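From the shared-data thread, chain only:
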Amino acid sequence: MEKMEDAEPPILEFKAQNVNPVKCPFSNDSVSFTLHPSSCLHLAGSSGAGKSTLSSYIAGLLPPRRGGRLLRNTLGINIVECKWNTAIPAGERVGMLFQQTTLLDSLTVAGNVCVALEYCPSAKNGKEMLTMEQKRATIKGLLETVGLDYARDGNKRPSELSGGMGRRASLALQLAQRKHVIILDEPFAGLDYSTGVGVAKELERLRREKGTALLLISHEPQFVDIVMGNNTKNPTKTIVDAPMINGDHVSKAGTNTVFLDRRESNDDNGTKSKALRHPSVFGKDPHQRFLIKLLDYFLYSLPLILLTFLAAGLAISMLSSDILRRVDVTDTVLSVVQKEIKPLIQMFTGEETVSPMYTMMINMKVRGMLNTTIPPAKATLYAMGMAKLFVLEIGPLITSLLLSGRIGGSYAGEVATMQASAQNKLLRTLGISPVMWTFGPSILASWVASPLLTLAGTVLALEVGAHIGPMYGIGDIASYRQEVWDAVFVPLRLRGVVSWTENEGWEHGGRSLVEYVSSFLDLRCTYSDTYTDALIEIATHPVCFHFIKSVVFMTVIMGVAEVAARWNSELSTRGVPKVITSSVVGGSLLVIFADWGFSQLLLKRH
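Structure, as tokens:
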């Protein structure tokens, strides 16, 4: 039997050398082995010895063109040989079974196997065109091969599978693709003993009946023995039985284990060439998470905000300037003047007809007056319109709608991912509130970032207007900036403020100190005796209004994101995109509704 196995062409011949003992994770001079059909190689060694690195290279998970160079430069591993049987198509060579269940969460178990079946190399190349009935029969056979029931388990979602069932379903995908070699990276991790034995028996039956070669990485020898079979055809041997050539462990026919010795570091052998570098724990405190979020929200959102406000400022200023330039009331005013002044002239002169000289002089005078008053009026109207529009209306609204996707969506995605991956449950077991862990620092960071971003975008848009207006003949830059300043920083109509202004500071004009101080502390409006109107007056002041709208809009966005992300306590990864979408759409709609409410509040001020 062994002679027949030796005569059968190998599937894979592999050899890697340790070319840099300082960088290489294993201390072996080299590692080499050969895989035959139905064979099982146990790649053993302590954690960090390079098992997953070598298996990832074999599986083609490293960059194909620079994977070998990357290993040589960064880890000191030189891939001498990775020779595949040329009779095996490249797409059917190798598959990999990861520690975690690797299935598409949006499909059932049968759907996952069907996708793998349709994308196997023979199906993609058109060599095999299966009908739907043939596909169903094949899927049924594959699921039964790995120990799953087609009728009972085929319609389950990955989130409904146990650990062992998930491993079996993942294995069925590799079989559907007809992989000749399957790499098993800790396939028994997290499984109880009985489940692990069941998976191990299925793997042993798979390689024995299907001829699939297995490259097994595992720290659980009791399961490894089961996969290897422990019979005369496939004897189990340890590294002690493996021949050594110049210190190299070589796997030949009948040798089932290759052991990688982990390289000792300076700390392992007790020698320290430099001071100990402690790992970072930044992010464990609330203020640290606040800083992380603030930098994220502000720095990554700033280019988006500035570009949007630049475009909005250009569009609105050009449109406004063009409209104001086209507005000409001279002829209308002259016709009105002639109609109204002509009877007066006739009354004073007593003549039935008005002399053309009088008409010409009046027209010249009126034109001169209009040419003197209309351009400054247009410039003032242009500046006030830009200031009111961006400061009171669209500035905070544009920023909030953008941040609904940028900040609200990212926060909802972060929390939903934590929800789906049981991180929130972990926090609860540690006695930490998941809401305070994420929402507290994030909402504070958004309260700081949103007004700053809104301010930056508004200033940019208004500055754009300062340069666009003069290009259309509307005012000049200096007068525009002054008009904008006066429109934004309007005096508060509070009795205390008016008293301060009228008395020019601390001059009390003969009044008693009590009367003088009380006049400054009177916060009622000049037009009302109620403090509600005074509160509205302060809240709707352009500067305060700009800040309050930004904070309120951001609170709405973050609140919606928080509720959407935590609504489903049993959320799966499949539902994360839906959470993000609902958060962005819901937050944006509520922001628009809140903006309408602020507009109604602004009407009360006037």
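The longest strand covers residues 77-84.
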